[in-house]
Amino acid sequence: MRGAFTNIPVVDVSALAPGAAPEARAETVDTLRDALERVGFAYLAGHGIPRAAVENLRELSRRFHALPDAEKMALKMNDFHRGYMPFSTSTIVTSTVDKVTRPNQSESLMVMHEVPEDAPYAGEPLHGPNQFPEDMPELRDAALDYMERLSALGEMLSGGLAEALGLPKDWFLPYFDTPTLFLRLLHYPEQKDEENLFGSAPHTDYGFVTILAQDEVGGLEVRNKDGEWIPAPPIPDTFVMNVGDILARWSNGRFVSTPHRVRNLSKRDRYSQPFFYDPSMEATVACPEEFIARGETAYSKPVRYGDYLLERLNKNYDYRKKAS
Ligand SMILES: O=C(O)CCC(=O)C(=O)O
Ligand SMILES: [Fe+2]
């Protein structure tokens, strides 16, 4: 039953890799289906991403956030949604989860897919340059390398998700020709335990899937159908994966996009690095014909992913509100 959970399942996804035994793959797909229909969250084990890639980026994120404010402010978010978001500047007003009134207690560096200067779509909404500190070239290298590795993982997962929905393994591929990628390097200083104060206020994610690496501090919580907040503490060598709103919509409501939040009550700084793997901006997200053929009714209208995304971003980020 949707939202009926008191813990977040661990799914070993190694059998989704090419060459795995078909029986093992089928079993993994079943486990994934249960997790995403009931919980909307799963810990991914057996994902094949080296621990060093995760830890190296985390260390660089720590170094980035330790830079003087002036250096970070020089990289302030540009119109293309890339750059530094200072403490207390994003309030999730489109959250359907709760009335959110106090800004998030976090700062972050937002990195997206790179856009070559001569690309035909350069300069269009959300297609522009990333911003990295000049004297930390290793941060740029690590972030781009990490996005490449996690995109490959996202693509592998999309095969399992398609099968979990009764679709051919490659069903999602054409919609991810030029995927929309976000890597957010988050820093949550310790926060007070006060009502309505969050590192990240209750929300659902916009996109397809989120693949999150968190440090050892903890603080992420996921809401079940009874309104209880279930902790999602770090488990070494796993990622926390969750369904975003566009996947919930695409799956015609089968997979759930589950509310979650962060409170860092640990008395230590917390660092996390969510990666959002989303379709191409041009992709039209519509209920699969295969579902209609099976007698289902589409519960939402087709939407161009880029339009949907812009609308959500314009509402939620202070720096964009003037533009919308
Ligand atoms: O930092 C975390 O653990 C979660 C962050 C999150 O939910 C988000 O950025 O959407
Ligand atoms: Fe989230």
From TrEMBL:
InterPro entries in the cross-refs: DIOX_N (IPR026992), IPNS-like_FE2OG_OXY (IPR044861), IPNS-like_sf (IPR027443), Iron_ascorbate_oxido_reductase (IPR050231), Oxoglu/Fe-dep_dioxygenase_dom (IPR005123)
* Cofactor(s) of this protein: Fe(2+)
Organism in which the protein naturally occurs: Paroceanicella profunda
Tell me its EC number(s), please: 1.13.12.19, 1.14.20.7
Q: What are the leading ranks of the lineage?
A: Bacteria, Pseudomonadati, Pseudomonadota, Alphaproteobacteria, Rhodobacterales
Stated name of the protein:
2-oxoglutarate-dependent ethylene/succinate-forming enzyme
**Pfam families from the xrefs?**
2OG-FeII_Oxy, DIOX_N
Pathway involvement of the protein, from the record: Alkene biosynthesis; ethylene biosynthesis via 2-oxoglutarate
Determine the domain of life of the protein's source: Bacteria
One GO MF term on file is: 2-oxoglutarate oxygenase/decarboxylase (ethylene-forming) activity
PANTHER family recorded: 2-OXOGLUTARATE (2OG) AND FE(II)-DEPENDENT OXYGENASE SUPERFAMILY PROTEIN-RELATED
